[in-house]
Amino acid sequence: MTPPSDLHRLPPGLPVPEDDGAARHLPGMRVPSVPLPATDGTVVDLAALHGRTVVYAYPRTGEPDRAPPDGWDAIPGARGCTPQSCAFRDHHADLAAAGARVFGLSTQTTDYQREAGDRLHLPFPLLSDADLVLVRAMALPTFATSGMTLTRRLTLVVRDGVVEHVFYPVFPPDRNAADVLAWLRHHPGG
Where is the segment annotated Disordered (predicted)? Predict the structure, then answer.
């Protein structure tokens, strides 16, 4: 198991998630109006945003001083939230140039997310769906572990409140931002 302080690297041999069909219903779906608190102090309603928005949903960011939940590395697609967030940070200017704003989304509280956003120097807000309102309204794929309900890793490209494209499953997570950027460049007009 990777030490808790090494959140930036993916350990070798992680199980690869398979497409279980849990996101097939999302392309073409209108995002429901669900205001979510953001780490920048605003409230964001993804349904009301114009243009292209990239929302990467992730299970949970790790904490440098704590081990992950028991069995975390054995859950396909669970490990990698910090590398994924850092990749979106590193590609943020290119994603903006391609016409997309970026948000991260998890079921963690805003305070928990704020610590991660500050520590990772994220130039975009993280959205909290701690009450699972958006998750349930959109039937986003989830899993449960250690008493938590967490989103499976997926990325939505939303245009004017409608899901235009879905990346699911996402693996490896540190490549997701580059994959999204390549897709946006091949599908201009956001």
Answer: 1-30
What is the rounded distance in angstroms from the CA atom of residue 166 to the CA atom of residue 83? 20
22 inside domain: no
Instruction: Tell me if 3 is assigned to some domain.
Output: no
User: Would 155 be classed as within a structural domain?
Assistant: yes
For 57-110, how does the pLDDT look when each residue is reduced to its tens digit (9 = 90+)? Answer: 999 988 877 888 889 999 999 999 899 999 999 999 999 999 999 999 999 999
At residue 143, the 3 state secondary structure works out as: strand
CA-nearest of 117, 88, 104 to 181 is: 88
Residue 18 lies inside a defined structural domain of this protein = no
Helix (H) or strand (E) holding 157, with range, is strand 154-159
d(CA 64, CA 61) in angstroms, rounded, equals 10
Q: What is the 3-state secondary structure (H, E, C) of 55-112?
A: EEECCCCCCCCCCCCCCHHHCCCCCCHHHHHHHHHHCHHHHHHCCEEEEEEECCCHHH
| C-alpha triplet 39, 40, 44: angle, nearest 5° | 80
CATH number, position 114:
3.40.30.10
pLDDT tens digit string along 121-136?
999 999 999 999 999 9
State how many domains the chain has.
1
